[in-house]
Design goal:
- 2 copies of one chain form a homodimer.
- The first copy, chain A, is α/β, with parallel strands linked by helices.
- The radius of gyration of chain A is 23 Å and the shape is globular.
- Chains A and B meet through helix 1, helix 8 and strand 15 of A and helix 1, helix 8 and strand 15 of B.
């Protein structure tokens, strides 16, 4: 298949592909820049089957690399810029990329510290994005760049966020991202002239997949270097944004800046992922007219798995959504047998978006992918109409006195209290019960319900074993770059006291 | 893969799927009816690998059969209702379907006359659509209907229109129609809440593919039994139609009824296929605001191959368009070597929408499909920007005195004359020149340019060897059901004189 960006550039050369910092690049320009960059990568020794790592924030070099690397027959390894040097060194040593392209400043220092020894020597050193433009491109004749993409080739290796367990590199095929983009377009529609605001990190699949969708559907990406509520508010109000991808904490900060104005009429979809979102937040946004489309996605499935159908926007806030066309879901017990509707169990996913496996981890791959089904480790239910509810990450399941407690359920109750802005519930080691339930909350404004008041509030709404035994107050919850709460960090914090 | 209609019904059960005669069917209703019909087909003896022929006009039974037949693991053979009994008998004998479902009245008589002996006996007789509802469905347990579709299975066998050569059954795979729908959605967009008016015959690929797109993108089909300018005008003006598929002669008749009103604001695409359209007609429609999207398609490629990009609507009327994403085009000489830009040659097509081949015609299949490229027999050019021009059907090429004459080129000149409403140019046998060029025209209104005037008009615009030697006036041009001019019939008519 023709590389997607080049196919779109052939179809619509002069249409806008990417806008950042007020500068717009057409599809033809972006495709030409990507091909020139691919020649530079060849000159740096990037070969078929190589990995090209990035330690880059959102920006033009990242976007160009996404499209250039496949032209070399190589795959992208986008590293999380928030990792410590030690974490980076682990991933580089695990993946062994041929080249590491990094930004300047602090990231340059982190890259140099991390890459020592584990990145195959190319050119001379790991390569700064700013210096890439100075590399003399390889001769186009001898560079032997690809004119077609094999859909079964690896497109990107993404280390899963690692809130649980050691990071593993999910190998996504070109077909994974292609089918994800097609499934998304068939689910959400693809309106001509669409603009998709990307303020999620591109090194996560939620951001990366926006670029694939742009090339495939012809939508324009409005790229922000990071999430800044004022900048996003301005873009929504003034730049004809039709879709935006957010996680819950971003939506909350955005609404605080947005105020009580009605949502912009051009905005037709706020794709809300990155973990379960509090219902009061969704309802607050819907009330202003923000079309909140919840989604459950996984790196291993190239982003969206189940997404709220558009015709349910504003009507259903109790479920996540339904599977994209081509994707299948089932809920299974520990033997892998399907469970009846409304019975909690592990969420299993099958379909063309699934990863090939975890890079060089045959055992972990075999545990995750069985008979074509991805065992997500997440817990949820399907109702009789096929709507998915996500109850929790299995690894976060709290086992207390022989009972299962799903943190999300307790958190939803706490968030319904008017004095609670954010809440996270974890299990702490307990000599009697195995684990006991602990709640971490961010109070809203200056109001502050007492422990006794919060306990009363929960007791009216939850079975006794689900009620937090302790309440801890924080100024903010620790989160990773994609906005997921780091429950393990919370647990460690409480236990160190 | 889950059957498309059932996947859409799971996602959006209560959304409208089909409206005809003022009655709307939701996706859930349509999917349930299709599954019930599949059980009836099983009761009638339809087995895996069978063909189910239809002799039905546009209507609910046709739509249900399109979705029911794959659940039996069978393929659809939609027959053209305008064929004579003799032509029908040829196709039935060639394809040997297990079952023929026909309408009542004249079609019942035609079906009985044609099916005698060549349709495998099932139930008792070829089956009337009205009687199907009375068949007791097979037991769902033992019927063994499919829950998943194998994309490589044959979905439909469509006899190519046969304006040239003997009819051949093009075997389309499910993948052909899937990729056609995806390519169309990525090219034209897929707007939530979309309504596609289908007034083309569903037994041709241009109509059939509207049904596939509906299931895949969730658009609603507004189905008309046939093209009636008043009904189409009413639907466009009052029924929020966003897309409509037409052939040129339909567009002309529609505009005559529509008058000088501006085009309806809800209409975002008039997909104009079925052969080259006269530029003055396109310009007339564009001037009123009708968004004319020209397309070049083939039964063998599951409909659209190259289509005008939306951002070129109203700007380019001199070309057909660009290939859908996933589809490749090249222009070749007789050896199959690619020709430079703007050089006329045979149009070759490659991509996932191509047919498997012609049913039980290995020799003709091998001639048509070589190294994955479909040799269309059509003549065109690609310009440096990748725009396709279609010059003519190769079989219609007129060879006169050693020079090549492309009828479409001469017709375009004739149509530019204010007194000419329709024009068709053919080659007639000539003892001196091999062929001589003859023009058949439908005069506009009561005006009537003389032969001498028309010849002067052409001479000012065409090389001498391209100028028609004779002009014939007709009340209308003979066309097949999909609106293609029957050039052979014209030639025979002239030579019988």
């Amino acid at each position: 298949m023709k590389p997607w960006l080049e196919a779109r550039a052939a179809l619509a050369p002069h249409q806008p592909a990417l806008t950042l910092n007020g500068i717009t690049f057409t599809f033809a320009t972006l495709a030409a820049r990507a091909r020139m960059l691919a020649l530079r990568l060849r000159a740096l020794g990037v070969r078929e089957g190589d990995l090209v790592a990035t330690l880059l924030p959102n920006g033009l070099p990242f976007v160009e690399l996404v499209h250039a690397v496949p032209l070399c027959g190589a795959a992208l390894l986008p590293l999380n810029v928030r990792l410590t040097s030690r974490e980076l060194a682990f991933q580089l040593d695990d993946a062994k990329p041929a080249l590491l392209v990094h930004a300047g400043g602090e990231l340059a220092a982190a890259a140099r510290a991390a890459a020592n020894g584990s990145v195959r020597r190319v050119a001379a050193e790991p390569c700064d994005a700013a210096l890439l433009a100075e590399i003399v491109p390889a001769n186009p004749e001898s560079a032997n760049l690809r004119d077609a993409i094999d859909l079964e080739d690896t497109c990107a290796v993404l280390y899963t966020s690692g809130t649980t367990g050691a990071p593993k590199g999910a190998e996504l095929r070109h077909a994974s991202l292609l089918w994800s983009a097609i499934g998304s377009a068939l689910h959400l529609g693809a309106v001509p002239g669409e603009r998709w605001l990307a303020c999620l990190p591109l090194f996560h699949v939620g951001g990366l997949s926006i670029l694939t969708r742009s090339a495939l559907t012809g939508s324009e990406v409005i790229l922000h270097q990071h999430f800044a509520p004022d900048a996003v508010t301005h873009a929504l109000a003034h730049e004809r944004v039709s879709l935006v991808s957010l996680v819950a904490v971003m939506l909350e900060r955005l609404l605080d800046v947005w105020g009580e104005r009605p949502a912009p009429p051009t905005l037709r979809c706020v794709l809300l992922g990155g973990g379960p979102a509090p219902r009061p937040l969704i309802e607050r946004a819907n009330a202003l007219g923000f079309p909140i489309v919840t989604t459950y996605g996984l790196t291993e499935a190239a982003s969206q798995v189940a997404t709220l159908p558009l015709h349910e926007v504003g009507r259903r806030t109790d479920i996540v959504g339904k599977p994209l066309l081509g994707t299948e879901l089932r809920i299974a017990d520990e033997s892998g047998a399907s469970l009846p509707p409304n019975t909690p169990g592990e969420i299993l996913v099958r379909g063309p978006t699934l990863m090939r496996g975890y890079l060089r981890r045959p055992d972990e791959t075999a545990r995750a992918l069985r008979d074509g089904w991805l065992h997500t480790g997440d817990v949820g239910t399907l109702d009789a109409d096929g709507f998915l509810r996500v109850l929790d990450r299995r690894a976060d399941l709290i086992l207390s006195g022989g009972e299962n407690v799903y943190p999300a359920e307790v958190e939803a109750i706490l968030l319904a209290h008017p004095d609670v802005a954010e809440a996270a519930v974890v299990g702490l080691a307990d000599p009697s019960f195995g684990q006991r339930v602990a709640a971490f909350i961010v109070p809203r404004g200056s109001a502050a319900a007492t422990d006794a008041e919060l306990e009363r509030f929960c007791r009216a709404r939850l079975a006794g074993y689900k009620i937090p035994r302790t309440f801890h107050r924080l100024a903010e919850l620790p989160r990773n770059a994609s906005g997921k709460v780091l429950r393990r960090a919370l647990g460690e914090r409480a236990e160190l006291r």
